[in-house]
Amino acid sequence: MKQLHKQSASARKDEEMPASDTPPYSPKSLKNPRSLPRSLNYILKEQRLLFVLIGIVIGATFFILQPSLSSSDGRGVISIANRESIDGLGHRGQTDFGRHGYGKYTNGVGRVPVGIGNRRKRIVVTGGAGFVGSHLVDKLIARGDDVIVIDNFFTGRKENVVHLFGNPRFELIRHDVVEPILLEVDQIYHLACPASPVHYKHNPVKTIKTNVMGTLNMLGLAKRIGARFLLTSTSEVYGDPLEHPQKETYWGHVNPIGVRSCYDEGKRVAETLTMDYHRGDGVEVRIARIFNTYGPRMCLDDGRVVSNFVAQAIRKQPMTVYGDGKQTRSFQYVSDLVYGLIALMEGEHIGPFNLGNPGEFTMLELAEVVKETIDPSATVEFKPNTADDPHKRKPDISKAKELLNWEPKISLKEGLPRMVDDFRNRILNEDEGRGSR
Amino acid sequence: MKQLHKQSASARKDEEMPASDTPPYSPKSLKNPRSLPRSLNYILKEQRLLFVLIGIVIGATFFILQPSLSSSDGRGVISIANRESIDGLGHRGQTDFGRHGYGKYTNGVGRVPVGIGNRRKRIVVTGGAGFVGSHLVDKLIARGDDVIVIDNFFTGRKENVVHLFGNPRFELIRHDVVEPILLEVDQIYHLACPASPVHYKHNPVKTIKTNVMGTLNMLGLAKRIGARFLLTSTSEVYGDPLEHPQKETYWGHVNPIGVRSCYDEGKRVAETLTMDYHRGDGVEVRIARIFNTYGPRMCLDDGRVVSNFVAQAIRKQPMTVYGDGKQTRSFQYVSDLVYGLIALMEGEHIGPFNLGNPGEFTMLELAEVVKETIDPSATVEFKPNTADDPHKRKPDISKAKELLNWEPKISLKEGLPRMVDDFRNRILNEDEGRGSR
Ligand SMILES: NC(=O)c1ccc[n+]([C@@H]2O[C@H](COP(=O)([O-])OP(=O)(O)OC[C@H]3O[C@@H](n4cnc5c(N)ncnc54)[C@H](O)[C@@H]3O)[C@@H](O)[C@H]2O)c1
Ligand SMILES: NC(=O)c1ccc[n+]([C@@H]2O[C@H](COP(=O)([O-])OP(=O)(O)OC[C@H]3O[C@@H](n4cnc5c(N)ncnc54)[C@H](O)[C@@H]3O)[C@@H](O)[C@H]2O)c1
């Protein structure tokens, strides 16, 4: 309709032009410069108006059909295939997705034949310039969706999405989710939130605002526009668990007034809000409780153990182990998580679902793998533990297995080298950057 | 300074008066009505100006001293004594406060001799028109402080504070704490929040907003103006506790996604925010974890067990017991709580502190006491339990005993009759109101 108005308006303008006082060089302007009735008369005569209308219809038809035309031209998909091969994954010509039996998620949506009304999806990813977010965006774009990233770049980096700049199906909005925003989309992946202790402790009050006001704003948006909303919660809602492994039914053991509480309690209340919007307003919601995840594009110095160890080993520094190194963690490779998030969003179950790799490693075992992968001469250095650091955590993922048909596929020994390639490049660039300055 | 300007301005006016065109009855006006230089000359001659200045100083001194003069005139205290005797407590001529050995809190502040600079305190009580808040306000006014109540009247009632209307040391602002407010005060008691399940479940998202944005706003205010801030948290932060009785060090057992979570998680995150403002911004904070409290001015039909039983027994209805009636609760009389809150605010310890009565009663025992007090023929009716209702809860108050020198004094058998008097009056008025309509 908009196009139609535009067309007809410009058509009218073209016809009226002669009647206005244009420069004397125009021969028509000599005739009778101010006679509007005569011009109108001219337009109405000899079916000129009818042809204008036909022109309008042709023009409008083109614009109305255009979206479905462009979605079937394969351009986006091809350009992504190219881009994927130069992303941070270090596996040129071979994408991480689609190699591990996830085909069913890759083909479901987006690429419909011309003429069938099933549009591709419009999806918002908040925090889409971050570690997990940028991998999720790659996957959604590759699948054929329109993706809008909302990010305030607190911990996110343009480098994580720069390969998508110029892709018409990708859009980046610099925006803080603490402020409301109005968009028209079908799905909202809500990831915006600093995820590592150094970052979320930096300004604890802001962390709570991001979790509460940010989640409120995105739930409000979902309610207003009827979008489906997915919250990326965290295994930290289990705190320092007294049950092991943790099932989704476990209520957790969290210190409400500690230095990590801004994140743990912030995420818990974000879950509460999500369920309240679901129960009270019928918003379609999904909740993922994400366990430790690693992979390319992680922050280099965010204090998370995998990135710490890898960066330290590459830089030939001793790997810092807090406490006695016997606390365990489970480590999930990022592409596994991305498939889990998409399976959850597309599925019929609200959750919460644990998304994590149940394979357990002590800090010392992890150090050993890093050593093997990067540098057999790497050493370990012990430091006292930080307050409230949970002793062990391991997901029970039977619910996700059963209801989402999902489970992680990539082992630490498979995943770590891919991350190391990315880290090595970035640390090298860092050093070169320093050297050339 | 303001007074000084005022004085001198009016002094000048008096002197200039003759020079303006006043009625001809003034003999001076006949001389030279418009000669300003001559008038000035007249003022400056014969030390007239000097005397004006002396007058200014005398006047200003009076106004500067006035606040401390009026605080020692005993007016406020007398009017409160009168008012207390007609409040909802049903004990005419005898106030609830000051009978149970709390003298030390009653005399500390406010009534200082003339000339000593120690002003009375300016105190904000958010939620001050509610059950607990209105009793706290009574106590603070009786002590001689200036009190500002902020309330949106969601569950509060004007009746609870109407006896203070017209008292110059009392002020009522209709305001929702979800919006920021700017005031100049010394202390902030932050109570604003619906406290009973029927009310906080009514709009769970609003309950979270009140707890998070409300607490943020009041902490922001405290930071800006350097006020001390007290949060009224709740025993609900312990959830359905696995430890019994609950110490302040217990992290709790709370369902993050249940129907009560808006309150439990909302209060937990309010505690987190409070501690983060303390750690990060040096705000002086206090945290009270309040256990079940009862007394006059409780809502009649708020679903809390004491008010339910009492109202039902007075109305000759069977008392509703949820579940098997064997879950226990501790019940604290409201004046005990008010003394605890003031002791906490005035003391040197941050908390959190449990404020509750450790005396444990099962629902069936409570029903028995109500029966004895109100109506020996009262009956009990059993209904299925509501979701997430904690099975038992009992405060360990040794920390408050030791550090605040506080413990509850009023037993259920003492406190219940006072509440019953108030409830009987209100239910009677209700019935009369209905009858006359
Ligand atoms: N990576 C993990 O191991 C892990 C584990 C559990 C949960 N999670 C959750 O997954 C999500 C993504 O984590 P990540 O590892 O990619 O972290 P990240 O820090 O790399 O990404 C977070 C992104 O959110 C953005 N952001 C932060 N605050 C924002 C705000 N107020 N407005 C707009 N954008 C904002 C950041 O700039 C960043 O791009 C987070 O919600 C996190 O809590 C991650
Ligand atoms: N009474 C108890 O047994 C108990 C137990 C634990 C904690 N508490 C806490 O003590 C405080 C007072 O409880 P109460 O029993 O007097 O409850 P109440 O409902 O009688 O009082 C709460 C007051 O806060 C006001 N209020 C609510 N939301 C507001 C908002 N957004 N802006 C401004 N005012 C608002 C209400 O109008 C009401 O006057 C609450 O914070 C409650 O959580 C009470």
Structure in words:
Chains A, B: The chain crosses the membrane at residues 48-65. Chains A, B: This is UDP-glucuronate decarboxylase. Chains A, B: Its EC number is 4.1.1.35. Two copies of one chain form a homodimer. The first copy, chain A, contains 14 helices and 13 strands. With 437 residues, chain A is α/β, with parallel strands linked by helices. The first copy, chain A, has a domain at 92-113 and 120-296 and 331-358 and 389-410: Rossmann fold (3-Layer(aba) Sandwich). In chain A, the strands form four sheets. The first copy, chain A, has a seven-stranded parallel β-sheet, with helices on both faces. A two-stranded parallel ribbon of chain A has the order 7-10. A two-stranded parallel ribbon of chain A has the order 8-13. The longest helix of chain A has 25 residues, at 412-436. The interface between A and B is medium-sized, with 35 and 35 residues.
